[in-house]
Write a sequence for this structure.
């Protein structure tokens, strides 16, 4: 299985901060990477696919980058609605795997 | 619009089985793959397996092989996941999630989740 490692596990930030989350794959996954946002008690929602393609309706303050084994999710100016847990997921392999999640909390 | 509506919460005894359903609307059922992802309390997301209705097959993460069966009923646009020999570690929220049929596709729509509690 392809292992996905996110860092940090928890991130404390303030409204307006620029936030970056890193996701590393144990082998080359090209750009077959998605980012999801999950709020407490809710299902995850797809934010970004193919490493950098924003889903329709996702605010432009979210962006994704990277290829191969290293990827980042950036929120350019954190808003109150962005406090949530973020997961990366590879879909290069026939068996998808997720990172362990990064919780973004209010500082 | 696209909706995946899952069946309600279940409480089961260790050693028993549970079957969770996921009814899809807002798309051509056979154009998609239906995945199941579980989330133990306070933990991350774990892919369980998928059914591919157009091919009539299912795939499973190795960890769940032999104890989980995922099926689809094209006539009712519903996917199912059955877990047998339940143990306390299976207590989790189980999500169904859709992806387009094909290679290299993310999970674009998710159901609301079904809490399965395994307790003596």
């Amino acid at each position: 299985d392809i292992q996905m490692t996110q860092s940090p596990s928890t991130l404390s930030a303030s409204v307006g901060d620029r936030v970056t989350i890193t996701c590393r794959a144990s082998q080359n996954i090209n750009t077959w990477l998605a980012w999801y946002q999950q709020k407490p008690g809710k299902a995850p929602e797809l934010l970004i696919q193919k490493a950098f393609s924003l889903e329709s309706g996702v605010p432009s303050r979210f962006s994704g980058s990277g290829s191969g084994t290293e990827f980042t999710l950036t929120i350019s100016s954190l808003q109150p609605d962005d406090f949530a847990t973020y997961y990366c997921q590879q879909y290069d392999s026939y068996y998808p795997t997720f990172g362990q999640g990064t919780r973004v909390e209010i500082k | 619009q696209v909706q995946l509506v899952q069946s309600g919460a279940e409480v089961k005894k260790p050693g028993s089985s549970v079957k969770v359903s996921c009814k899809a609307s807002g798309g051509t059922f056979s154009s998609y793959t239906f995945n199941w992802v579980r989330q133990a309390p306070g933990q991350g997301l774990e892919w369980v397996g998928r059914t591919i209705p157009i091919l009539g097959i299912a795939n499973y993460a190795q960890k769940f092989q032999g104890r989980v069966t995922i099926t689809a009923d094209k006539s009712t646009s519903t996917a199912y996941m059955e877990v047998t020999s339940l143990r306390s570690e299976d207590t989790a929220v189980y999500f169904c999630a859709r992806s387009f049929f094909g290679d290299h596709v993310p999970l674009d729509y998710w159901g609301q989740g079904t809490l399965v509690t395994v307790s003596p």
